[in-house]
Design a protein that fits this description.
Radius of gyration: 32 Å
Distance between the termini: 27 Å
Helix content: 40-55%
Shape: elongated
Number of strands: 20
């Protein structure tokens, strides 16, 4: 029977080819610009500034020499190691007076992969290359001295924000004073003063490398150095970061981030700000199980002021839209919101996420929020689906005339100029009958950018990190049982089967029927499960909508026309004598 063979699957060869070409072009543009597009580099230090850095280095070297030559100089140091813990509603930070640096930076609202409170201090990197809020200088021996000395803390034990904590240390003419201020946000303030015999010496406050949630290579794939200069942001991937490279301002902000968290310095004096990019090799597990170790770069940043005394604020927390838009640079206008980089279709991705957040206000579960948003999008696209069906019906009505035109030119080769006349006749026929060649591609033209926007947005949204939905424990991670990708493959095949498409070549029909499900399954198999959820629900809704439209008068007419053509194409049966 014709319906068993699904004559509705007939489609114009040119339309299917056009859709395939558009899909390939979209993929090429998206991934090409995302990974190979040019990146604007921050301004490197000028020779004069490099000379100034060298002078500061010599000053610190003199400090070490003076300390040895003048052991009776005034010194300030604690007798033993002590800790101070600062706590507010969103974090708990533990300082040690050895180097006046941070050993733990706990974010209370987030968990690591083991379900424990997330510590932003990367233990492996910190033990090897230094802890957050240590100092960076161009003299390694002086840096080791100021980062290992026992500072005198203004308070020990437990403190509750708002609070101020000061550390002081002095030896051999070298004086260091660190002052930190805390409020109820993710941002803390700092004032760093380093002097050698009373003269300012440039020393930078550092986040030496990586963040605590970067436990395997899947997270480190997205490590980057982020900067903003005069309101224009730059995101540098790990492979483009040079360790020890000095960059001078102006800087609105600068730091490091992964898909979900960031450590960003905000200078109080952007015009005279300076940063040093850091890159250290570390061994990380490919699968997060402690095995299959590979060496990758752990990124860090040191920030301060070329004058020597540095006043910088530090944001260390989640890359949540609601948080980032409220953290402003010294100009009071530039925010940290550009840290959320959703790729080539980032503008669409941003508004999709804002829409998802709006839905989440009324639907507490993020998985159900994705489903509700998918339903809304498909309802908005329903009129376009109907228009597509009308266009397909018009195409099907004139298909016999198009076949007759093609038959007249069948004797000519594809490269023959006569083929151009054939195409001109077909286009004239379509124009005369009011057929829009691209009418059937309109929903695809709209849905592909939405799909790519979800593709770039979902794996980088901290709100979905660890979000549960039935068997899914993290909507930003792949479906562990591949249930959704399998549903998506089957539903994609059914979409191809039930969607009417006039006049398709059988070979192309088979190619599209199997290639599209395979393509979509490949994308979602090891990708964010939130994308597979969106795509699968969209397919199921599309199948229901198509089944309803197939039962309308328009749909029945298309089926009848397709069935007639299918019967005409069947070879005649010759009855033999018994």
């Amino acid at each position: 029977m014709a319906e068993i063979k699904n004559p509705n699957q007939q489609a114009n060869a040119g339309s299917s080819t056009t859709m395939l070409v558009m899909m390939v072009v979209f993929l090429g543009v998206f991934f090409g610009l995302r990974y190979f597009g040019p990146k604007k580099q921050p301004t490197p230090a000028t020779p004069a500034q490099q000379q100034q850095a060298q002078q500061h280095q010599e000053a610190l070297q003199q400090a070490t020499t003076t300390a040895v030559a003048n052991p009776t100089a005034a010194s300030v140091a604690a007798e033993g190691e002590q800790t101070t813990t600062i706590e507010n509603a969103v974090y708990r930070i533990t300082f040690t007076n050895r180097g006046a640096q941070v050993t733990h930076w706990i974010l209370k609202d987030y968990k690591d992969s083991h379900g424990a409170p997330l510590d932003l201090v990367h233990k492996t990197v910190a033990a090897k290359y230094g802890y957050p809020l240590s100092l960076y200088s161009y003299d390694t021996s002086a840096m080791a001295k100021v980062n290992s000395g026992l500072y005198v803390a203004s308070a020990t034990g437990n403190l509750t924000a708002p609070a101020t904590l000061t550390f002081t240390y002095a030896t051999g003419g070298l004086e260091v004073k660190k002052t930190f201020t805390f409020d109820n946000s993710y941002v803390l303030g700092s004032r760093i003063e380093v002097k050698q015999n009373g003269a300012p010496v440039r020393a930078l406050l550092t986040w030496p490398g990586a963040l605590g949630d970067q436990e395997n290579t899947s997270h480190h794939t997205y490590d980057q150095v982020d900067t903003s200069q005069n309101g224009s942001e730059t995101h540098l991937a790990a492979k483009k970061v040079s360790g020890g490279n000095t960059l001078n301002g102006p800087f609105d902000w600068a730091g490091i981030s992964d898909p979900y968290f960031a450590a960003i310095f905000l200078p109080e004096n952007p015009a005279t700000a300076t940063i040093v990019t850091l890159s250290h090799p570390i061994d990380v597990s490919k699968d997060g199980d402690g095995k299959n170790l590979i060496s990758i770069p752990a990124l860090g940043v040191a920030a301060g002021d070329i004058s020597g005394f540095s006043s910088v604020r530090l944001f260390a927390g989640p890359k949540a839209v609601s948080v980032l838009k409220n953290v402003k640079a010294a100009d009071g206008k530039t925010t940290l919101e550009p840290l959320l980089d959703f790729g080539f279709f980032g503008v669409i991705g941003k508004y999709l996420f804002l829409a998802l957040q709006a839905v989440h206000k009324y639907v507490p579960n993020w998985g159900w929020s994705i489903i509700v948003l998918t339903v809304i999008i498909n309802l908005i696209l329903l009129p376009l689906r109907y228009k597509t069906m009308q266009s397909a019906l018009k195409m099907q009505r004139i298909q016999p005339q198009m076949d007759a035109i093609k038959a007249r030119y069948a004797k000519y080769k594809v490269t023959d100029p006569k083929r151009g006349e054939m195409n001109a006749e077909i286009m004239e026929l379509q124009k005369r009958e009011g057929v829009n060649v691209f009418g059937g591609c309109l929903p695809t033209l709209i849905q592909l950018p939405l799909l790519f926007a979800f593709l770039g947005m979902l794996p980088k949204v901290v709100e979905l990190r660890g979000a549960h939905w039935y068997w899914l424990h993290d909507l930003t991670a792949a479906d562990p049982y591949h249930i959704l990708p399998i549903i998506m493959i089957v539903s994609q095949f059914l979409m191809q089967f039930y969607t009417p498409s006039p006049g398709m070549d059988p070979a192309q029909q088979k190619m599209m029927a199997f290639m599209m499900p395979a393509f979509s399954g490949y994308i979602t198999w090891n990708y964010a499960s939130g994308l597979a959820l969106y795509w699968s629900i969209g397919n199921l809704i599309g199948i229901i909508q198509q089944q309803v439209m197939n039962r309308t008068s328009l749909g029945r007419e298309m089926k009848e026309l397709a069935a007639k053509r299918a019967r005409r194409r069947q070879p005649a049966t010759i009855q033999g004598r018994r």
